[in-house]
Amino acid sequence: MGRFVFLLNTVEPPKHIATPPAGHEIAVVDQYAFRAQDLVGADGLLISQHLDEVHLGEHRETLEVFLDRGGTLSLNGPVARPCLDPPGQYHALPSQAAREWVIDMGAPHPITAGVAAEDLTYRRGVIGFWARGFFEVPEGATVLTRFRASRRPADWLWQRPEGGALFVHPGNDIWGYAGDATSARPVFAQFLDWASR
Amino acid sequence: MIRIATIDAGLAYQTRTFEDPPFAERFGQRIPLRRLEETDLAGLPCLMIPCRTNGVRLAPHKAQLAAYVDAGGTLVVMGETHPELFLSGLQVAPEPTNFWWWLEEGADLGVRIAALDHPLVADMSEADVTWHVHGTLQFEDPSTPLVTWSKDGHPQPILSLQMRGRGRLIVTTLDPIYHHGSGFMPATTAFLTRFLPALCQDW
User: Fold this and answer.
1) Quick check: A123 and B99 CB within 8 A?
2) What distance in Å separates residue B20's CA from the closest CA in chain A?
3) SS (H, E, C) A15-28
């Protein structure tokens, strides 16, 4: 069982943050009240697509220290102002054509074990929730999913040489899939398992 | 032509809408949410609270926002902001989001332009206001529905105008800035292409 911190910047926490899967513990901290001490003893920090990126950028050093000490960050969303580099700038795929958003699985990994690419690409037939753009992959990172047409990376996992790990997901928050009735459902739980290994 | 002043909550999709073409030129002063209290709103012709700004953080500024409208300002409150937390006389009846309505052949979400002659929506088509319905608006005092959504055959407002004091309040449950700025759902870009210039006109 792992201990995680979620920064809250919405009226309510998302369902699977408030009731985490697989026995994990998630402390919900108001983003504007966030302090470095909140990360003491935490395995990971969950960074949503709905955060104040200016405020988060003011805490860059805190994030780096957390990583240096072996923590894991889950970074979600089509970021406009990156809080860290890597991942640096987000690049939207140039076309919003549905065929550009088809996902393929990349390297096998415990986070995506048992997940079918089709369940990431489509939710009840709608395409685009999972990812519509990418971040450049740092050297040594493992690409977990890719865009079929462009071969660009979607999800990747990077174990920093200085310590810690980044799980970068360029689309809608991964915990939003934790209630899906498809093979996309376990991704969040498997990430939490991996990050608290 | 005026520029729209806006609260800036630092959300990625807000940043992209405010800074990138084609809408950057429509926005003027950006007021960081954390600096709202110390910002003098007097004289701003139009102030927007953009999609998904956290209503809990606006609740302490209720009196400041009310005073702005009362003194003659135009306040534009976008979707998923929980306006009932920072505006009086208004409730939002939430609706579970149907993300999949359009997959059925001949599907019609049921969103309609209710005031075809109103300059804020006159140039819009039904396609420009049709993506998701997150809730409907309920005002204590008279208001003018500009866009409605029919539930069980009864049209309910999802974009409305209300005169308050010497000013104007525009509220919607539509969240186009979230989708446009996230690169997801072209109808929301079409909506902003018509709505933002209309706000900048003298209407």
Assistant:
1) yes
2) 11
3) HHHHCCCCCCEEEE
Which tokens belong to A44? 């990971």
- pTM score, whole prediction: 0.97
| CA angle, residues B46, B16, B197, in degrees to nearest 5 | 35
Closest CA to B120 of B179, B46, B56: B46
Q: How far apart are CA B18 and CA B6, in angstroms?
A: 9
Both tokens of B28, joined, read 């003027």
Distance separating alpha carbons of residues A167 and A79, to the nearest angstrom: 14
**Interatomic CA distance for residues A81 and B9, integer angstroms:** 13
Q: How close B181 gets to chain A, by Cα (Å)?
A: 9
Q: Mean pLDDT across chain B, nearest whole number?
A: 95
Q: Which two tokens stand for residue B176?
A: 């186009």
What pLDDT, on a 0 to 100 scale, did the predictor assign at position B25? 98
| Tokens 């865009």 belong to residue | A147
The complex scores an ipTM of 0.97
Inter-chain residue contact B15 with A78, CB threshold 8 Å: no
**What is the phi/psi pair of residue A15, to 5°?**
-50, -50
Residues of B in contact with A32 (CB under 8 A): 34, 57
Distance CA B112, CA B110 (A): 6
Amino acid at the residue B39: T
